Amino acid sequence: MEFLTYDERNILTMLVTESWASSIAKRLGEPQQPAWYTPSRLKEAGAAGEPMHYVRPDHAGLHYASFQSPTEPGDGAFETLEGTHIFAMPFRTEEE
């Protein structure tokens, strides 16, 4: 298992901490409300737990934070062998 760096832990904290929503929104180029609404509503509905781990940049150059869910939260999720679902939220591009 790979350990997270300090910066990677900060990214995950920002994704699930309302006080950082405006910072996330600016990086995503989105209004603050949608940037915070998705993770907070998924957690409130019981569709997502705490973020599991940070996934390093993929071939498209995007950074993702992955979450585990007992039910399929929508497009982009996949089922693990244990029967839970994993989905990822885009965080930022490599250039940012």
SS class: alpha+beta
- How much is the radius of gyration in Å? 13 Å
**Total of domains:** 1
The biggest beta sheet is recorded as: 4 strands, antiparallel
The number of helices is: 3
Helix content bin:
25-40%
Strand content: 25-35%
Mean pLDDT: 55
SSE arrangement, N to C: HHHEEEE
- What general outline do the C-alpha atoms trace? extended
Give unreliable regions as ranges.
Answer: 52-63
In what order do the strands lie side by side in the largest sheet? 1-2-4-3
- End-to-end distance: 27 Å
Number of strands: 4
Describe the model.
- The termini are far apart.
- 33% of the residues lie in helices and 25% in strands.
- The protein is extended.
- The protein has one domain.
- The chain has 96 residues and is of the alpha+beta class.
- It contains 3 helices and 4 strands.
- About 12% of the residues have low confidence.
Short key terms for the protein model shown above:
single chain; 33% helix; 25% strand; 4 strands; 96 residues; 4-stranded antiparallel β-sheet
Layout of helices and strands, plus pairs?
Blueprint: H1 6-16, H2 21-28, H3 32-44, E1 51-55, E2 62-69, E3 78-79, E4 85-93
Antiparallel strand pairs: 1-2, 2-4, 3-4
